[in-house]
């Protein structure tokens, strides 16, 4: 439809200028504007994965998204990478970084991060280099707000690694590796859903997510093993983390296993997801001091739910009015309304139509929500009603071995 409108506009413009109207065939042969495509990268667990966690994936699978119905069509797969369980694309869309959730990259039992350059027209990836992550079994990575560093959460290593980004997009050796310590916490939280037999590993520090706040002033990390959220500043010259002066960490509910967090656009509210007790803590965030002050705790399952559940992913809608959480084991997606004061109301909990949904991500327009279903070896999509936050299942199933993560790109 876009190309037809363009041809008509060209013909009308020529006619107005006194030029004879072109034939339909001649108009079709005019140069057309480039067609932007939406590319979706999906990673997950391969046969070479974390101890006891191997999967059915092949590497990084690349798809083209149908923006009308949310379906994904396969384009290519990059197999020369082990268990790329988390991906992130640079703000300028020139580079993609993928961690490998392994513990045997080197003799120190570390994982690694691979840097790729991105062809903005085709979506093809070209490997630049591979760098150690600073700890074993990395589970999450993000790019600092400044664009100068990749930050890695090493789950089994109990550490945060800071990797400098070179001018060519490749990664340098970590400038800092911070290891957390603290008292032994219970494997289960006291505020569990009724009948929850699932446990989270509290044998030591297990950093599950690291990212900067929207201003870039602070770096935060969820430690699911120590039940803490840590807060640092990052020295952009040395690449070293400095504990926040006023509140270097906040203790969460013992046993709750804080896994991921999401900020509102202004950076005044942070939503912290507890894996083990399937709860979201809505808290204010002081952008000057990094202080986190909890205001509310809400369940990600409805009161009638009984059984085992482990919350996994948390996602705030582009308009900031709705928040979504994936519940593993319970196989549900919870949707919350965000009130004017930042607190939450649970609106609905729907079946995700698959097993063990982990991360979620919106397409670039926010029209569709995609869920990576690790045990179902599939990706499912839901149409998002921007006015009500309602999720409507599209009935699109995309086969992907042990998927865990997404990254989207609009080509040029």
TrEMBL record:
Superkingdom assignment: Bacteria
UniProt keyword terms in alphabetical order: Carbohydrate metabolism, Glucose metabolism, Signal
Residues making up the signal peptide according to the UniProt record: 1-17
InterPro entries named among the record's database cross-references: Cycloisomerase_2 (IPR050282), Haem_d1_sf (IPR011048), Lactonase_7-beta_prop (IPR019405), WD40/YVTN_repeat-like_dom_sf (IPR015943)
Similarity field: Belongs to the cycloisomerase 2 family.
Name of the protein: 3-carboxymuconate cyclase
